[in-house]
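[recover] target loaded
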């Protein structure tokens, strides 16, 4: 038997209902904040990601699905959305139309990672991006949107961590100080972190290795290196969050993996997830537009993993009973009653009832069993007698009551 590719998942029945539930909530909350959906292709020229995510990140170094197409062009299955979205906004000139461009997306992403609980090779992200405002109120708008969505889904236990990486110049000052400190403690760091000293030094701060954690606990605090402009931005973010009563935890070691962030960065975590505990994250990226050939455009956004949102909701038992029950099961006696039964089903479906009909030409008894299994509230029974007299028999499956009526009265009946 041919199996699916490792780290991918088929979704069906009950699982897909959970996705629909989540998608509905996403559509509702994004529309309350005036965000509109953007869909881009799932693959891009590799350059889009090389120029944005950063060459010394895990994504670019180890995880991208990159291949040459038959025309010899290097193509990559998107590992995240922000780069594709910025490419699309520049190409389609979308910032022209609005003072603030508010976009959301939902779709599959691809990373060659080691699969485990909550970590797949094809996974799905929902995210929003608020483009064109340099001001802290736009950071807070998307955080507020995230909060409202998480609440709507029913998740009330989670941790929201926030930090500021400052602007380019304050980050540079901090990195210089961090470099000195970490080099002094180089021998105590893991091999991976030792390598990162020359490639992606900030990532040492959020290493999970115990040796690194011990060193990093005494590292200089990035928040003490913010210059006036960076400090102003972050202070307003926190003040507005306080005002909205959005609880947060300051986490000066939170840096996020990608190169393009500046100022505010944040992450959502849940203890329901185990080791892969982050279910969302984001931040401000003021230089990405230029990196991808656009004009300077400030922006802020976040992404959440849909599979992880679903895992949390399952663990917390937050999924409502999903109602996909049949309203009416049309029981019929085979070929001679087929046309009549088809017409009855058509009328009912046009009246917005969910109707099932036997497709296996089974006995009445088997059809009644099937009707019970489908949780149908009513059966409509059509035998030769009904066809010959232009009637239908309706059976209430809860009470067991049964009545025969003229078929032209069907339109007047409410099945509740
Ligand atoms: P990132 O862009 O890495 O910050 O990812 C944002 C969110 O996407 C994470 O918090 C996860 O919820 C989700 N995510 C990232 N990578 C994976 C993966 N390989 N499998 C499942 N979810 C993922």
């Amino acid at each position: 038997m041919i199996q699916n590719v490792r780290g991918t998942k088929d979704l069906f029945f009950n699982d897909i209902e959970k996705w629909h539930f989540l998608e509905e909530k996403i559509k509702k909350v994004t529309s309350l904040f005036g965000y509109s959906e953007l869909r881009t292709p799932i693959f891009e020229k590799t350059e889009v990601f090389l120029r944005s995510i950063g060459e010394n990140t895990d994504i670019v170094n180890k995880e991208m699905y990159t291949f040459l197409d038959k025309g010899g062009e290097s193509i990559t299955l998107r590992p995240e959305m922000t780069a594709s979205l910025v490419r699309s906004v520049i190409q389609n000139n979308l910032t022209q139309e609005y003072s603030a461009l508010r976009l959301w997306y939902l779709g599959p992403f691809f990373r060659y990672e080691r699969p485990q609980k909550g970590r797949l090779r094809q996974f799905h992200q929902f995210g929003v991006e608020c483009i064109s405002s340099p001001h802290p109120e736009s950071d807070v708008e998307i955080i507020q949107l995230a909060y409202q969505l998480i609440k709507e889904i029913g998740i009330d236990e989670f941790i929201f961590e926030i930090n500021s990486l400052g602007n380019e110049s304050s980050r540079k000052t901090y990195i210089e100080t961090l470099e000195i400190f970490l080099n002094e403690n180089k021998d105590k760091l893991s091999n991976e972190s030792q390598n990162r000293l020359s490639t992606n030094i900030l990532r040492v701060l959020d290493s999970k290795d115990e040796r690194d954690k011990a060193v990093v606990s005494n590292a200089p605090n990035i928040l003490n290196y913010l210059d006036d402009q960076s400090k102003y931005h972050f202070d307003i973010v926190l003040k507005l969050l306080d005002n909205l009563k959005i609880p947060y935890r300051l986490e000066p070691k939170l840096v996020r993996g990608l190169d393009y962030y500046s100022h505010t960065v944040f992450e959502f975590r849940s203890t329901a997830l185990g080791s892969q505990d982050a279910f969302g994250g984001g931040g401000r990226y003021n230089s990405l537009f230029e990196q991808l050939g656009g004009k300077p455009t400030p922006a802020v956004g976040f992404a959440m993993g849909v599979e992880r949102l679903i895992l949390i909701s399952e663990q917390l038992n937050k999924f409502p009973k999903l109602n996909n029950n049949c309203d009416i099961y049309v029981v019929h006696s085979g070929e001679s009653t087929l046309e009549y039964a088809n017409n009855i089903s058509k009328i009912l479906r046009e009246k917005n009832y969910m109707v099932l009909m036997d497709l296996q030409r089974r006995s009445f008894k088997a059809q009644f069993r099937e009707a019970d299994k489908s949780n149908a509230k009513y059966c409509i029974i059509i035998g030769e007698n009904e066809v010959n007299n232009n009637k239908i028999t309706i059976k209430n499956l809860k009470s067991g009551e049964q009545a025969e009526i003229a078929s032209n009265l069907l339109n007047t009946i409410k099945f509740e």
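[recover] notes: The longest helix spans residues 13-32.
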